[in-house]
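tool_call: predict_structure(chain=1)
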Amino acid sequence: MAGQYRNRVRIDLVRCSFFLLVTTLLFVGTSASAVSIDHTLKVFGNANMDDAIDEADIEYVQGVIDGTNEETELADANYDGEIDEEDIAQIELIIAGVETELTLIDGATRTVTVGKPVERIVVCFPHALETLRTLKVPKDNIVGAAKHWPEYDPGFFPEIGDIPDVGDRWDPNVEEILALKPDLVLFTASSAYSDTSSTISSLESVGVDVLCFSLNGLETYPEEIEELGYVLDKEVEAKEFVDWRGNILDDIEAKVDNIPENEKPRVYFEAASGDDGYKIYGEYAYIALCGGNDIFSDQPGSYTSVNPEAIAAREPDVIVKVESTAGGYDMDARDISEFEDTRGEVMSRKVLQYVPAVKEGRVYVIAVHLLSFFGDSGCRSFIQLAYQAKWFQPELFEDLDPKAIHQEYLTRFQGLDIDLDENGVFVYPLEETT
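tool_result:
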């Protein structure tokens, strides 16, 4: 069973590597130097190109009509190729929450018009279900899920057994989806550029609306969840979460910005699993954002093999090791033996015996559940940043409580009855002992 699980993890990582590549291509212009960035709500009707549709957009469109404002792509609220009074009428409907159609640019840069209201949804990847829970979408509105590759973590998604299965994330069964009569199907952004694109075309050809989002990018997530908020009439819920999450990340960023370079530890982040050897996580390790210096910042790619001798030569002060086959929400919080073993394995490597991280015991293990692009990962990378900030800069972030952040996310935004004092293993050494 353990061998089968490790094989599944490796296959997941191959798929995730493809996902990382496509995501990088999609968002090549996105800044990687800041935790929190201003974003544009890519919904037609957001005429002034800010992060909301409101009375200011009506005024802006009127200015376009009067010739005093420049046209913007999103000013054409009803997406008919003209900017006129009908666009003002559409914006008024959107503000009132009674529009029958909404046009937006999804996470795969596709311009899509969806019918409203949306009451029956099929999700084809776990991040979508997690996001719908954050938006407080009723469980009964989720009528189907593609439950394979990756499987849904039953500890985090206790409701998944009650949702009909439509097959593989990358190759769902079109007939089974259609039998559920969905108003909307949610795919990953990378699906639009993979073999899954034919499935998307098949669904759209018979009138089923499809949206593609990543829902795991640290910087793109606020924009994507707010778009879904407009689609699902959950704008308030989206903003509540985005503001809460943003305050956490803004606080980290503000403190990290003031750290002198010579006070930032050298960090090696190892994303390898099983027999994969030494692999780095690249930009998705978020080392710089947490107050560290990535010893392999000169390496291209996000899941790249490195030479162990090169690790030793670059003398990391901190090592973060991904635990890819253990941890999770259904574990006893005291059951840390596998994490202890993983940390012990890293610290016992002959090639690393003389690096500062091992000599000083600054070796940390983190579960994939708090990362972005692994099989059991989700929308929780902001929690990863909180832990890493605490590890890299313990004095600066003495008052930061990553476990409390995690708990609030589970209780307030996911509606889960999970007490992290009793259940769940995600990091080692445990926060209270670091």
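agent: The chain has three domains: 2-30+261-433, 55-105, 111-241. Proceeding to next step.
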